[in-house]
Design the sequence.
């Protein structure tokens, strides 16, 4: 029996509607709309698409938004100086620096220069630390999106064995922490793991975030498992693929996300939710 499809587009649409209602409620109380500042450095085509979509999402739910398209020649000091100006600008509750950055700019230093309360990507050391301490403030967007998708399945998560494939700072590591919060037994496999496929094959939940197209086949998946594919890799023909070989795994899993149309739109909604939360935290 084929897996049930987790339609991220449809779920994200409903979540955006809820956020738009919350923005209207703020307006009725005389509060300004949440504001998001987006910084794009260079001319990476994928990043330009992401920024355009994020700005469109903001307008749809009634946020104030603005974007800075900066040359790839900008220095790290100049970028951080702009971020510091935006930190002090009450118009913007959230600041998003679109990755990747040019090689001469240290993404860690840039991330740390964003005020923790305006870090709507959720990866500032303060926000990551709060997640480690089981007291999340602003949560990393992608792992938050995955948790929403898992909640949508209706599968009781407590006590299940979950395996995260990939250990990046933006996805893999916070993903493991989020799964621990809901009571899963969590394994992380990565490029140095000796028995990755065997570890994954015993898992009730699989979250793959490697960016290695087609890495995970049906022989990696326990029958009936929930499979969340975070990977998205552009192909030469313009199409995109995920980490998971969807056509194989769909006949083995219990639930599965497509690529595209699974985690991606949910991550964008998580950014909106984080911006609204940042506005609420700033008021309090």
Sequence:
């Amino acid at each position: 029996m084929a897996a049930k499809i987790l339609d991220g587009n449809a779920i994200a649409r409903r979540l955006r509607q809820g956020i738009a209602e919350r923005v209207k409620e703020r307006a009725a109380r005389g509060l300004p709309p949440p504001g998001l500042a987006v910084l794009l450095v260079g001319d990476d085509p994928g990043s330009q698409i992401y920024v355009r979509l994020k700005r469109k999402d903001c307008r749809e739910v009634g946020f104030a938004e603005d974007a800075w398209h900066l040359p790839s020649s900008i220095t790290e000091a100049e970028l951080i100086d702009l971020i510091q100006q935006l930190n002090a600008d009450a118009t913007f509750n959230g600041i998003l620096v679109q990755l990747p950055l040019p090689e001469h700019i240290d993404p860690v230093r840039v991330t740390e220069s964003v005020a923790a309360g305006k870090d709507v990507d959720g990866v500032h050391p303060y926000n990551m630390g709060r997640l480690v301490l089981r007291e999340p403030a602003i949560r990393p967007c992608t792992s938050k999106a995955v948790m929403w998708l898992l909640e949508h399945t209706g599968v009781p998560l407590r006590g299940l064995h979950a395996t995260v494939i990939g250990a990046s700072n933006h996805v893999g590591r916070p993903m493991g922490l989020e799964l621990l919060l809901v009571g899963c037994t969590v394994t992380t496999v990565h490029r140095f793991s000796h028995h990755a496929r065997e570890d994954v094959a015993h898992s009730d939940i699989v979250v793959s975030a490697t960016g290695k197209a087609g890495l995970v086949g049906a022989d990696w998946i326990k029958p009936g498992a929930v499979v969340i594919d975070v990977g998205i890799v552009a192909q030469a023909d313009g199409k995109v693929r995920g980490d998971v070989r969807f056509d194989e795994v769909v006949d083995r899993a219990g639930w599965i996300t497509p690529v595209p149309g699974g985690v991606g739109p949910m991550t964008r909604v998580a950014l909106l939710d984080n911006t609204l939360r940042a506005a609420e935290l700033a008021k309090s």
